[in-house]
Structures
1.
Amino acid sequence: MKYGTVLVIDDSEAILTAVKICLEGAFERIVTLTSPDKALASIEQEHPSVILLDMNFSLGVNSGGEGMMWLTAIHRRFPDIPIVLITAYADVKLAVRALKNGAADFVTKPWDNEELIRVLKDAIDKASEVVSLEQLESEHVRKALNKCDGNMKRAADLLGISRQTLYNKVK
Amino acid sequence: MKYGTVLVIDDSEAILTAVKICLEGAFERIVTLTSPDKALASIEQEHPSVILLDMNFSLGVNSGGEGMMWLTAIHRRFPDIPIVLITAYADVKLAVRALKNGAADFVTKPWDNEELIRVLKDAIDKASEVVSLEQLESEHVRKALNKCDGNMKRAADLLGISRQTLYNKVK
DNA sequence: ACGGTAGTGTCTAATTATTGGACACAAGGG
DNA sequence: CCCTTGTGTCCAATAATTAGACACTACCGT
């Protein structure tokens, strides 16, 4: 099984070409966009496995604000598609904010080809991990109990289940 | 209910004092450690709401590797306690790796006092968010179906439930 | 010391959810 | 064209969840 489609969004044609050549061997299909305007429509149509999004589109504006906006917009609409950000302006605060806003990873230009491929594949792998409902539930139950300092009544209320059910789940 | 205990781990006494003064007004209790050796025992005893962990402990070693090691060790043992990393060596790659390894946030020295308080409180708030089992489940179900391209049989298998049960949940 | 509040552990009986099994049917691939 | 795979839909048996009740403990304020 080959890693699926990658959607690459960058305002520079040169970058798009370079990325395309870099990723060609590793992915089934590479779709490129020079502007995020059509991103949502394109995602709907292409169903990419991962999105590589540049952070700066307005010339002279390098705060990354625009990329961040698109990150949140895309991530809200397609929470299951991992988004990897790429930027020329390596900034720790920006990177942290991006990851906290749902980005799967954050790479800086100039990039290392091998690393970029690895990062994108890793993002896909991570995003497609699905655990059993049972495991998800037991972890969540533990977290809720933790937050309530072991108070089962409040934890049950928080979880939206009855006290007895929580009692049974715990044992 | 006021923001609980903060555990601060940094090899510099001067830093610990400065952080202590900074956080004193905003948290109930500040516990400090000059070395992560006793971190696990201290956490067990103090039950901190959040941990502020410095990344560099060996003089001359500033790769952050040691902090990263402790981050993963602590996070594995106490996955519900948010860990905020702090370092003097602002490095995008390091920050990204830290967040992907479970850190709640990443701040650089010198820090802004207001920002540090905000970051720690935010980490606590985020960590204590607990959603209902029903909501958690429906989101997970959606994710699983997405991964299986809508194939209910495979999705049900992946989730560890029967096909009919998944069928009922979806409607 | 006292009553009030809140939580636990346990039970019952009614209600729901989940399950394996079955069946007809549609789509797709050697 | 058969064979596989998955859907949509039933059924009846089993398991989980629920509200409600009860005695008991722990703590809190007066």
2.
Amino acid sequence: MNYKIAIAEDNTFLANALIEKLSFFKEELQYLFRARDGKELVEKLENNQEIDLILMDIKMPNMNGIEATQIIKKRFPTIKIVMITVFDDDENILQSIQSGANGYLLKEATADELHKGILDVMKGGATMTPSIAMKALKILQTAEVPQYVENENIKLSKREKEVLEQLSKGLGYQVIAEKLFVSPSTIRKHIENIYRKLQVHNKIEAVEKARKHRLL
Amino acid sequence: MNYKIAIAEDNTFLANALIEKLSFFKEELQYLFRARDGKELVEKLENNQEIDLILMDIKMPNMNGIEATQIIKKRFPTIKIVMITVFDDDENILQSIQSGANGYLLKEATADELHKGILDVMKGGATMTPSIAMKALKILQTAEVPQYVENENIKLSKREKEVLEQLSKGLGYQVIAEKLFVSPSTIRKHIENIYRKLQVHNKIEAVEKARKHRLL
DNA sequence: TCAAAAATAGGGCAGATGTCGTATTCTTTA
DNA sequence: TAAAGAATACGACATCTGCCCTATTTTTGA
């Protein structure tokens, strides 16, 4: 199998490094062209509809890799896109994935890793460096697919909810007392009652459990 | 580096296949024992606290791999878990991830793939076969992800993240120390450093800020 | 290979917290 | 209207927490 590959990367040095890595596998991976930004990439794709996969940098002038991915996935949905970047923060990962990228490799990827990643994607899978995979998992763990626990008849009074609200901000009972215009003793008593109702024994457990039960 | 590995798998034939694959790398990957179900696994772990990583089947009698993962991640948070299964449906994948699994490989994985996956996980990353990665990405594409704030250069060490993880469950110094097998003084020092890095002054603020910045 | 960072560990202190009491006043509602 | 719940308030005590200090060993990165 022979796959046709384009590169979107503004930095010539890094682009050449990628081309060099691809060259080790030229029987399978055929480098066709390079664009210096998202705009140029889209234009070139209009005139060259045989590209199978794009190695996409994120940070580029004019149009960045994430915007370009969105446009390309809409206009040419069969083209696979692998992000190649130094940025491995959650925002870039999530945005890339939600734009439809099929993979996410770091720039320090070896030629072999790049090769394997491209093949994996072309076979219908996805590819991620382990550290990126880890972050993706973390995001999935907290993502909104949650099973909120249904109210097991926990009823907090209005005042108790107000106190809990303040607690969740990390405030101490002294400060909360001032904010709610009552004495610290009262706040402490409320907290005691909240703990009893939620069956917990400290602030964090209380806040966590309240969140789970949508009491906050 | 030498990693100690346990296997949870009810089918003896498949368990032996795994052991065989591990044996190719016995310098690095030391197979310690096998359990036939989740219950047996948890019991054996109580008596053998040196395990680094578990290869976990999902479908097992008595207690399945997902339940076992939840329990083990709670009781022994430093142990890494890689799911090894024939099931690659969205439900199993999502549940495994949300139980805290660090990786998800299919049973047809080669010895080399298994080896690489284990090393990736032990280095703090995650591992997924490309088809699983693809499904994880699909889930992430449609998932609602809560609002977060851009990383203002906050870098927590691996250990600090582990401590924060435990903190977020509402545990005290003493308990965390026991779970991570270090002295309370060490935990307190880690927490001090975490507070400084996050610029906060108590547990709740730390947990809240960490959530916002997806450090947790 | 050498310096920096991370992980480990302990001491001390002031103040915060969790958990008991008890008690008065005001609302809600059966 | 009487009882129950909610909100208010104070005291006491052991423990936990946040913050300061120092110090050694291990790991990592340049």
